[in-house]
Amino acid sequence: MKINNAQKKFLRQSAHHLKPVVWAGQHGITKALITEIEEVLERHELIKVKCRLGEREERDAGIKKICEDTGAELVQRIGNIVTLYKKNSEKPVIKLP
After folding, report:
1. Which residues on adjacent β-strands are paired with residue 93?
2. Which of 61, 63, 66, 77 is the most buried (most CB within 10 A)?
3. Cβ-contact 44, 83 below 8 angstroms
4. Strand, coil or helix: what is 34?
5. CB 53 within 8 A of CB 39
């Protein structure tokens, strides 16, 4: 599912108060990390992930891998904090404009 700019703006506003719920760190992007992100996305749809993966190029590659493996959309990235969105197919929580 591709989201447009108006929807991204809405999601950024909705995520403003959220704290990171998953931390990607020294072990990089592992299968366990991907599974954890998928489970949290299934429950919340909109989450923040703190990525401590090294330099900018490593973070960009890690973020891209997370999005590809989970099927999530990148809403926003500010420094080490990434906001991700994935619609729950059974019980959607967030109604996009």
Report:
1. none
2. 66
3. no
4. helix
5. no
- Say which residue the tokens 């366990």 belong to: 32
Joined together, the tokens standing for residue 22 give 């998953």
**Other beta carbons less than 10 A from residue 52's beta carbon:** 12
8 A C-beta contact, residue 50 and residue 20: yes
DSSP H helical segments within 1-97, as ranges? 5-15, 31-44, 56-70
Tokens 């489970």, residue? Answer: 39
Report field, pTM of the whole predicted structure over 0.90 = yes
CATH class of 5-85: alpha beta
Contact between 85 and 18 (Cβ < 8 Å): no
